[in-house]
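I have a small job for you when you get a moment. Would you make up a two-line entry for one protein for me to read? No commentary is needed, just the two lines. Write everything out right here, beneath this request.
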Amino acid sequence: MTPERGLPAAVPVFHARGLTKTYRTGEIEVRALREVDLDVGRGEFIVLLGPSGSGKSTLLNILGGLDVPSAGEVRFGEQDLSTASEAELTTYRRRHVGFVFQFYNLIPSLTVRENVALVTDIVDNAMPVDEAIDRVGLTPRRDHFPSQLSGGEQQRVAIARAIVKRPEVLLCDEPTGALDYQTGKLVLEVIARINQEIGTTAIVITHNAAIAGMADRVVYLGDGRIQRVEVNAHKLKPSELSW
């Protein structure tokens, strides 16, 4: 059965139930997530929205296999991430997940092409490097070094590096947080295009409510809980956003 756009697939990419994360520092206990239930359908574009400390990054890190829950269950397809070993999580991240963070984490001594090509050594079915660079619109800049690029261009290199693995899931933590308005729109356009053209499931964290307009669903978090989930009947293009 093919799901309607914006609704989870019959077999979700992610299936989380009772997801809880507690951090302890000495005698201080912080509950970053509190019994979160969430299904994410294949090919969905989801925005996680909420203030600092609401649990967005913790949720994204658990979905990406960078962290594990204190309680509850999270599955990627048939794989139980909540009980996976560190070696299994490493394999999961390599094979299935592309990460894009607010800060680009490029190697300054390598060109655009070399930064993207580094990732191809750890996967079996990598996209051609030049194709990944072309998809983010940087073919004319592929032999440049990060210091020769604008912030938006560096972020697009980070996206190319994430998608060259052909990941099933693209997880983005504040990808426009360090960018100006116009540059941020360009970066969002790239993420939206990857989601639509390749069918990669995309989950984007933001503090910016306007960005929610481009999502299939918007998940609002507060105090470690999902406060509400909204389905966008009419998605906006990044060029139509205003913030």
